[in-house]
Amino acid sequence: MKIRFLKLKDWLLMTVMGLMGLTACHSSKEVAQQPVEPEDDKPAVAPRSEAALMYGVPTMDFVLKGRVIDSKGVGVEGMQVILVNGTIDITPDNMHLDNKYVLEYIRESSDTTDAEGYFSCHMKDFPKDSQNVIVRDVDGKKNGAFVDQMVEVNFADGVQSGTRKGWYQGTRTKDVDITVKRVNED
């Protein structure tokens, strides 16, 4: 008797949901007939703006300013500073420079230090206290060879600005000095 009641309840629930237009799946034939996108053309970076608008994901602008210095405190020219978004999988050893989406992300979210070692870069990401930053030598041996590295920058004590509107959490700015080592330096 209890089983009959449960089956009836499930049938009624599914009927009501079906009448309301709440169906669970599409036909598997439709999915199988859709063309598969080649692996090389898939973006390595999720389009943030689309995800934020579609699902209401909190976002925040991060601005990193500062100076890249050597062990003696002298500014280093020709170092690329990249703010790494949480959805992109790059490290100093694995930059995916053959992927056009990664190259576009690096172009938009990085800066190269000037003659005094100063830089300023920005990106949009989920609100969080720290961000990874890649610092890499892009000018070769022009001013000496430096070790590429990834450092974590704490934005929790950065300057918060901008008004919070909906899912947008404003801008957090941090000023830092990043020390890099020469290739043969221990």
Short description:
This protein is α+β, with helices and mostly antiparallel strands and 186 residues long.
Can you put this structure into words, describing what you see?
Helices cover 23% and strands 31% of the residues. The chain is α+β, with helices and mostly antiparallel strands. The strands form 2 sheets. The chain has a 4-stranded mixed β-sheet, with no helix packed on it. A hairpin with a 6-residue loop joins strand 7 and strand 8 (168-179). 18% of the residues are buried. The model is unreliable at 49-53 (pLDDT under 50).
The strands making up the biggest β-sheet line up spatially as: 4-1-8-7
Roughly what fraction of the amino acids lie in strands? Answer: 25-35%
Compressed to H and E, one letter per element, the order equals HHHEEHEEEEEE
Low confidence ranges: 49-53
Shape: elongated
Query: What's the total helix number?
Result: 4
Helix content: 10-25%
- Please give the radius of gyration in angstroms: 24 Å
Average pLDDT metric: 81
| Main sheet: strands, sense, barrel | 4 strands, mixed
- The count of DSSP E runs of length 2 or more, i.e. the number of strands, is 8
First CA to last CA: what distance?
Answer: 79 Å
Category by helix and strand content: alpha+beta
